[in-house]
UniProtKB/TrEMBL annotation:
Domain Citrate transporter-like, first and last residues per copy: 19-408
Record protein name field: SLC13 family permease
Superkingdom as given in the UniProt entry: Bacteria
Topology in membrane: Multi-pass membrane protein
Signal sequence range: none
Membrane-spanning parts: 52-72, 92-120, 132-157, 172-193, 269-291, 325-345, 357-390, 443-470
Source species of the chain: Brevibacterium samyangense
Pfam families: CitMHS (PF03600)
Lineage: Bacteria, Bacillati, Actinomycetota, Actinomycetes, Micrococcales
Major place of residence: membrane
Length: 471
């Protein structure tokens, strides 16, 4: 047992050192896994390397490359522009509209790609007097919901890790659970912050310059890694937000004054092919799943991306730099280390400790709460990869349905990301007017920390318990 405890301490220390020093945790995890495996176990180098999740790497690279092409060639921006022009500006509907648009973007491989909508959403909130907290929460919830799509990062990591552990978790069911949870939370946000919006139901034509969505977004492109904004907070320098009348006038006249806007208003051959590729991707995944086949989304994305690259080689070449290699290393390093811990029996030891609590539902609640608490201050993607294996002993005795517990654990690890100490919450604060930031920090901190308890109550009480007793 001493070796297992030592290995777990090394695992925790790697997380802590990486967070404190701002170093990529995935790289440290690979180094830590190597030292632990070679000095504390009988594993060989071949055994260690075999633990790196090649299948997840192919999936993540293929998905992020295909949707990076869609972002680079202007297809995503054009779709956003057209959608916003059609929805009008009803104050009540605007947060829901941004939830739908942002969720669609977040489903395209990288959840944080949805952050491109935050500056636009905050501008719209100010223009139509929508509470900044409501708009910010709506966009954060959309990023979480879209992130659990079968084509996006949170969903890929959650159902991929569950599949590798022998737990049958339908990716579409996982997506539906996440969307349902976030819609419940959005309804709660409307109840708390949407009263003023219901008093103003007028609708006028609404136009937005998609270029505003790019202003000050984290990193150089929307497929930047999760730590693009420090989890310690954000400042106005990270994401700019104009507050004077001149900026507001520019915002109103954006589609008239900006020639780039008119260029985006028409689709070319490449954009139509990209949209067709998205339809083929979604359709093939749905059809194969309906036929009982396990679709390899990564390979499908590689095939579609290769067609787009042949049609437009320059865009394909530029999109290579936007492949989410950072997440590949993060997830790969953590899963490799977890594989070493599993070989040593450390994961089973922790799982048995959770199981020893006695009541399976209480153990599930504790596990989900721990996942949420840790995720509030660390990488959600990393937590998903690290905590899913801990649920296996709770599933092994048959008391808890594996698919429900893994889905609950995944969503509980993501709903806390509205905290101002996470990337999403920090972006909400940074894009809001300076006069509103102090209030937003308080609201988001309370809301985010409350999710540590509210999330498990919703998911364990509303999903795991019914599945346990009636499944």
């Amino acid at each position: 047992m001493a070796l297992q405890i030592l290995a777990l301490l090394v695992f925790i220390a790697v997380f802590a050192v990486g967070a404190l020093r701002g170093v990529h945790i995935g790289i440290l995890m690979i180094a830590g896994a190597s030292g632990t495996a070679l000095f504390l176990t009988d594993m060989t180098v071949e055994d260690l390397v075999a633990g790196f999740p090649i299948d997840l790497m192919v999936l993540l690279v293929g998905v992020t490359y295909f949707f990076a092409i869609a972002q680079t060639n202007g297809t995503v921006d054009t779709l956003i522009d057209r959608a916003l022009q059609k929805v009008g500006s009803n104050a009540v509907l605007l947060p829901l509209v941004f939830f739908l648009l942002t969720g669609g973007i977040a489903a395209m491989g990288a959840p944080l790609a949805g952050l491109v909508m935050m500056p636009v959403g905050m501008q719209v909130a100010r223009k139509y007097n929508v509470d900044f907290a409501l708009m910010g929460l709506a966009i954060c919830f959309a990023i979480g919901a879209g992130g659990f799509a079968p084509t996006s990062l949170y969903g890929i990591v959650t159902y991929g890790t569950a599949h590798d552990a022998g737990i049958a978790l339908n990716p579409f069911l996982l997506f539906g659970i996440a969307v349902g949870t976030y819609l419940v939370l959005l309804a709660g946000a409307y109840a708390m912050f949407g009263r003023e919006a219901f008093k103003r139901r007028g609708s006028t034509a609404f136009h937005v310059n998609p270029r505003l969505a790019q202003v000050g977004a984290p990193g150089n492109h929307p497929f930047e890694r999760e730590t693009a904004i420090s989890r310690g907070g954000a400042s106005a320098a990270d994401i700019s937000f104009g507050e004077d009348e001149e900026d507001e006038a520019k915002f109103d006249e954006s589609t008239v004054a900006d020639p780039e806007s008119s260029k985006l208003s028409s689709f070319g051959l490449v954009q139509w092919l990209t949209v067709a590729g998205m339809i083929v991707l979604i359709g093939s995944v749905v059809v194969l799943a309906a036929l009982g086949r396990d679709p390899d989304i990564g390979l499908i994305c590689f095939a579609l991306a290769s067609v787009l690259t042949l049609v437009d080689p320059k865009t394909g070449k530029n999109a290579v730099s936007k492949i989410d290699w950072s997440t590949v290393l993060l997830v790969g390093g953590i899963i490799t280390f977890v594989g070493v811990l599993q070989h040593m029996g450390a994961v089973d030891m922790l799982g048995e400790a959770a199981k020893s609590i006695g009541a399976p539902l209480v153990a599930a609640f504790v596990l989900c709460a721990v996942g949420g608490l840790v995720s509030a201050f660390a990488s959600t993607t990393g937590i998903l990869a690290a905590l899913v294996p801990l649920a296996l002993p709770l599933v092994a005795d048959g008391h808890l349905p594996g698919w429900a517990l893994i889905a609950a654990l995944g969503v509980c690890s993501a709903v806390v990301d509205v905290s101002p100490y996470s990337t999403l919450g920090a972006t909400v604060v940074a894009t809001a007017p300076e006069s509103a930031r102090a209030r937003l920090v308080k609201i988001l901190l309370r809301f985010g920390l409350s999710m540590v308890i509210v999330g498990p109550l919703l998911l364990v009480g509303g999903l795991v318990a019914p599945a346990m007793f009636f499944g």
